Amino acid sequence: MNPQDPLASLHPLRQPDAVGWWPPAPGWWLLGLLLAGLLVTLCYLILRHLRRTRYRRLARRQQQRLFEAFEHNGDLPTFVSSTNALLKSVALQAWPRRDIAALHGHDWLQFLNTTAGDSALFEADFADASYRADIPSLDAKRLQHSALTWIARHRSAQ
After folding, report:
1. 63: domain range?
2. pLDDT tens per residue, range 124-155
3. Closest Cα to residue 99, out of 118, 84, 115, 79?
């Protein structure tokens, strides 16, 4: 050691301890609470949507089974009347009973076509076909497409 060098007698510099990540600053706590609140709200909205549209999913499955039964046995009158009954029950789920229950014939067909949107229009013969034993030339595939589309996309009163 050189007696002339006063810096040589100093101790080496000590490094401070590394800054830990815990506990976080208050801003991070607020951000975490905000994100948790958003997550809870999102889960609530998704569950509410799933609960509200459950009848649509069940009706679509039921309509698929009706069409498969029609393809198997070829009984068009049963398929048409069952489809009509299913559409009526779906409408009763989405609209007040006083508005739907009495609809039949042309009024029922007009209701289906106005609430279906632009994509699925029911044939004019569908309104009376479910009440007749002999069904005029009704296209079962088009009826199936119209029914599935109406079930999925109808604009409900709720």
Report:
1. 55-153
2. 888 777 777 677 678 889 999 999 999 998 87
3. 115
